[in-house]
């Protein structure tokens, strides 16, 4: 007979309560660990001057504590991981990129002003007229440094110095004191000096008066003096020649009295300067507009060619008199199963101007050897050929599915009226599948608009556009052009690249909104 806790005289919740309490406290402990870890990241990023990342994790930790801390928000706990991931990997990078586009962030303006100032203050220079030749002496199992001034009186009359044993060097510093003669023991040769070179270069010899000597050659030490001194107004004085470095807050550099900018610099806000350069600087505007037009042409022609090839093949596969449809269908879809980067690299070898199979065939048949990678128009043609090969199976699958949904009665009626295959294709099939295909065609256009892999693996953007002040090629798309500015340019202008990336984002958003506003059409 079935019995319950109540029939036994026991509380109904007693058998479940310990497990529920254990689970609840485990969840609370886990949440506490996650929140504390997030706060630690907030503090760590703040101390390193990365306030945007600190703010990101602060918002993430606060949201985590609120959503999982209130029972009224229990229904939101299931979607919180997805929203948090979207915020960290989509929204934050977007905001960060837009923020960079309003700055001069680049390889020359990479560090914060505090770190740039610290780097200048850490620079040293060798004092003129004071240098010591040195020699290693072995005393039993210990090695000492013996130094003798090259010229002059040395340091405060001390022409000869002897160090403590090398084994007593702590934190890279080793004390030296004046002496009248070399230490007793065996003088070691140049071979031993070379063997201990790394150890000697890491040493700083400290004299009784506080002067520090550093290794400046394979056989000499010299005093290394601080080169710059910070002034109360934030400027730096060059102790070597007396010059003054003034911080330029508009451009993010220390500037000499003659106007020369010294690197490294620090990022500063430049407003709309990066966007203005894109359209106002002729050395950037010309290549940018050329690449902009080619990007639209490339994406548009790719969609047209892949649709044309896919539609024709799909129509042929629906031909009733065609035998072995399954075999043909499998063979035509095979390019879709091969990873794109493998196909691209194979085509790169086939289009090789000297040893490629395509030029070999063309030379034997027509006596020509096209320069696929050096002629701009041939390089663009090659890109369209390869991308059509990579994209037509996708269009083939779409067209096959849509064609099969067309009622057969329409074709039978066309046959009664005397319509042939071409009439059926252009009067029945194409009009009926074109409207349902439109959103997918826009999506394909947006994909090819940012087809970075094809450009990077096949041409790398080459051949280059002559006269451009930024790395720009005739086969570059906007996305590959942005990549080259950010990571392949000698200056690595992240601010300018971020401005172009922002424009690309706005264009893609426009295409996405157009796609979403298209009416849902059913066949």
TrEMBL record:
- Can you cite an annotated GO cellular component? maltose transport complex
Q: Which Gene3D superfamilies match?
A: D-maltodextrin-binding protein, MBP, MalF N-terminal region-like, MetI-like
Could you tell me the superkingdom of the organism this chain comes from?
Bacteria
Q: Which GO terms describe its molecular function?
A: ABC-type maltose transporter activity
Give the bilayer topology: Multi-pass membrane protein
Give the subcellular location.
Answer: Cell inner membrane; Cell membrane
**Which GO BP terms apply?**
maltodextrin transmembrane transport
Q: Which UniProt keywords apply?
A: Cell inner membrane, Cell membrane, Membrane, Sugar transport, Transmembrane, Transmembrane helix, Transport
Instruction: Give start and end of each ABC transmembrane type-1 domain.
Output: 292-515
Q: Could you tell me which InterPro entries the record lists for this protein? A: MalF_N, MalF_P2, MalF_P2_sf, MetI-like, MetI-like_sf
Q: Where are the transmembrane segments?
A: 25-45, 51-68, 80-102, 291-314, 326-347, 382-403, 437-458, 494-516
Tell me, in a sentence or two, what this protein's role is: Part of the ABC transporter complex MalEFGK involved in maltose/maltodextrin import. Probably responsible for the translocation of the substrate across the membrane.
Similarity-based family: Belongs to the binding-protein-dependent transport system permease family. MalFG subfamily.
Quaternary structure and interacting proteins, as annotated: The complex is composed of two ATP-binding proteins (MalK), two transmembrane proteins (MalG and MalF) and a solute-binding protein (MalE).
Indicate what this protein is called per its UniProt record.
Answer: Maltose/maltodextrin transport system permease protein
Report the gene name. Answer: malF
């Amino acid at each position: 007979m079935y019995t319950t806790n109540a029939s036994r005289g026991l509380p109904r919740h007693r058998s479940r309560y310990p497990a529920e309490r254990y689970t609840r406290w485990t969840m609370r402990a886990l949440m506490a660990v996650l929140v504390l870890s997030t706060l630690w990241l907030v503090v760590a990023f703040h101390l390193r001057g990365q306030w945007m990342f600190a703010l990101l994790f602060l918002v993430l930790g606060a949201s985590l504590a609120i959503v999982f801390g209130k029972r009224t928000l229990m229904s939101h706990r299931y979607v919180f991981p997805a929203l948090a991931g979207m915020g960290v990997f989509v929204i934050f990078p977007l905001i960060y990129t837009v923020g960079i586009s309003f700055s001069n962030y680049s390889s020359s303006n990479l560090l914060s002003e505090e770190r740039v100032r610290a780097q200048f203050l850490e620079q040293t220079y060798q004092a003129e007229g004071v240098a010591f030749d040195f020699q290693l002496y072995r005393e039993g199992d210990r090695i000492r440094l013996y130094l003798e001034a090259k010229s002059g009186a040395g340091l405060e009359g001390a022409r000869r110095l002897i160090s403590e044993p090398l084994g007593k060097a702590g934190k890279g510093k080793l004390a030296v004191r004046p002496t009248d003669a070399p230490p007793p023991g065996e003088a070691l040769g140049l071979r031993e000096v070379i063997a201990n070179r790394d150890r000697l270069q890491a040493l700083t010899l400290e004299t009784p008066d506080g002067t520090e000597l550093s290794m400046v050659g394979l056989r000499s030490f010299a005093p290394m003096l601080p080169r710059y001194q910070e002034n109360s107004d934030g400027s730096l004085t060059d102790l070597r020649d007396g010059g003054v470095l003034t911080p330029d807050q508009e451009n993010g550099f220390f500037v000499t009295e003659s106007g020369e900018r010294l690197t490294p610099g620090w990022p500063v806000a430049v407003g709309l300067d990066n966007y203005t350069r894109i359209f106002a600087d002729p050395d950037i505007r010309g290549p940018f507009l050329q690449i902009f037009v080619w990007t639209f042409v490339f994406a548009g022609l790719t969609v047209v060619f892949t649709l044309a090839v896919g539609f024709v093949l799909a129509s042929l596969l629906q031909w009733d008199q065609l035998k072995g449809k399954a075999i043909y269908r499998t063979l035509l879809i095979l390019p879709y199963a091969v990873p794109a980067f493998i196909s691209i690299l194979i085509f790169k070898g086939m289009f090789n101007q000297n040893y490629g199979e395509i030029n070999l065939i063309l030379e034997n048949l027509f006596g020509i050897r096209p320069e696929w990678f050096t002629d701009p128009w041939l390089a663009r043609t090659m890109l369209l050929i390869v991308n059509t090969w990579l994209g037509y199976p996708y269009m083939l699958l779409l067209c096959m599915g849509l064609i099969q949904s067309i009622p057969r009665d329409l074709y039978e009626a066309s046959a009664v009226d005397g319509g042939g295959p071409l009439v059926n294709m252009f009067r029945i099939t194409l009009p009926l599948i074109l409207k349902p295909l439109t959103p997918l065609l826009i999506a394909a256009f947006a994909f090819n608009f940012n087809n970075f892999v094809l450009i990077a693996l096949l041409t790398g953007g080459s051949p280059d556009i002559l006269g451009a002040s930024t790395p720009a090629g005739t086969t570059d798309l906007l996305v590959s052009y942005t990549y080259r500015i950010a990571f392949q340019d000698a200056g690595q202008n992240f601010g300018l690249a971020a401005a172009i990336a922002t424009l690309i984002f706005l264009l893609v958003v426009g295409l996405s909104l157009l796609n979403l506003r298209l009416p849902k059409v059913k066949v």
